[in-house]
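Sharing a chain and its predicted structure for anyone who wants a worked example. Both blocks are below, sequence first, tokens second.
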Amino acid sequence: MTFNIASCHESQRGIIDVAHTIKIEQPDIIAVQEVDRFTHRSGTEIDQSYELAHLAGLPYSTFVHSMDFNGGQYGNAILSRHPFDAIELNHLNGHSQGETRSLGIISMKIMDKYRLYFGVMHLEHEIKSLREAQTKEAIELCRCIVPENEPFILAGDFNDSPTSRTLELLLTNGEFLLSCDKCPKTFPAHNPNQTIDYILLNTKAMEIFELKSYRTSNTEKTSDHLPLIMELERK
């Protein structure tokens, strides 16, 4: 699952509503974007990555720092039902314009033979050249972090369409696979007409998993993005 939560500011009960949306879907692992940690706007004692995991019934979580913000930090998170390790955090600076973004990658043992690598990424939303620069940077980082023969899932808000240069780079240079012909529209949540959130698999992941479904959540809208869910089954 991937979900841009807009720092839990788009619903009446905030983080409680967002956690409820996640809990209904029962994901094993989730990439979360736009997460506040100890900020003035969301609470100087609130780590949204930890609180969201706790409220959604997911015992493992990690915050992925993008930048210092509003007296605290802002970035992404990975929440999981299963323990994980090998946390890798990398800032995506592109050419030093706009907000600093980040790529976080964890790994977990899923079979005797494999480790599953799972990444969260949030790309620049306004400056096209910066978004593409961040994408190229992310692809090189993924190559350095993830062994070629291990399954890898990369999820997040890429802020671009399926026909964009951003996606072309990820699918060609990055060698990821897009598991849809007509990809689910995820933004804006109340009248979605754009596909900007994705869950991508590498070739090894496609070899060992069977894709059962790839869809948005039909639960109550709790952010400006719809949650995107991919169901995989081991072959």
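Comments welcome. The first strand starts at residue 2 and ends at 4.
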